[in-house]
Automatic annotation (TrEMBL):
Superkingdom, natural source: Bacteria
Domain Isochorismatase-like: 10-175
Transmembrane regions listed in the UniProt entry: none
UniProt cross-references to InterPro entries, sorted A to Z: Isochorismatase-like_dom, Isochorismatase-like_hydrls, Isochorismatase-like_sf
Cell cycle as UniProt keyword: no
MF terms (GO), sorted A to Z: hydrolase activity
Organism: Streptacidiphilus fuscans
Protein name: Isochorismatase family protein
Keyword Hydrolase part of the UniProt annotation: yes
Length: 181
């Protein structure tokens, strides 16, 4: 379903818009994702709505068949590309999703948030995992589809076309900004 409304207690959640992850997405439209994300950040800030910056500094310990990033990451790996303002929430995660093992849900509850608008990298990993958990926590979920990218274009399209409509509403940055009024 296309985005229909933005609750007056919404939060914008930026997933893994950090130097280390963005480097992997340099050929996958990261500049456009960042431009759209910055527009959304400005609009949420202007309206006094919650903005949450999420970065990742580790990974779940389980075995996988796919290679993981190296353990000795560059010093600026987790540095946010869009800096958080003093009153904004920053969450550092160790797994794909931003809810597991973090204070994200508690921070959103404390602020009375009922809806989250998600942007970030990677669509099929951090964004999708966070969207699933947000849906399971009872939040209204809106996904800004032009403010996210993935290193795998097929996975990106699958998440947008097949998964996200089951978890919430989707829209472009312009559509979401129009709903913000």
């Amino acid at each position: 379903m296309a985005a229909t409304t933005i609750d007056p207690t919404s939060a914008l959640v930026l997933i893994d818009l950090q130097k280390g992850i963005a480097a992997f997405a340099k050929d996958r439209g990261i500049d456009e994702v960042l431009a759209h994300s910055e527009r959304l950040v400005a609009a949420f800030r202007e309206r006094g709505l919650t903005v949450v910056h999420v970065n990742v500094t580790g990974g779940a310990p389980g075995r996988t068949e796919l290679q993981r990033p190296p353990r000795d990451l560059p010093a600026d790996w987790a540095e946010l590309i869009i800096p958080a303002a003093a009153d904004e929430v920053t969450v550092t995660k160790q797994t794909w999703g931003a809810f597991h093992g973090t204070e994200l849900h508690a921070e959103l509850e404390k602020r009375g948030v009922t809806q989250i608008v998600l942007v970030g990298v990677a669509t099929s990993v951090g964004v999708e995992s966070t969207a699933r958990a947000a849906y399971e926590h009872g939040y209204h979920v809106t996904l800004a589809t032009d403010a996210m990218t993935d290193m795998d274009p097929v996975s990106h399209e699958h998440s947008i076309a097949r998964v996200f409509p089951k978890l919430g509403e989707t829209g472009t940055t312009d559509e979401i900004l129009a709903l913000l009024g």
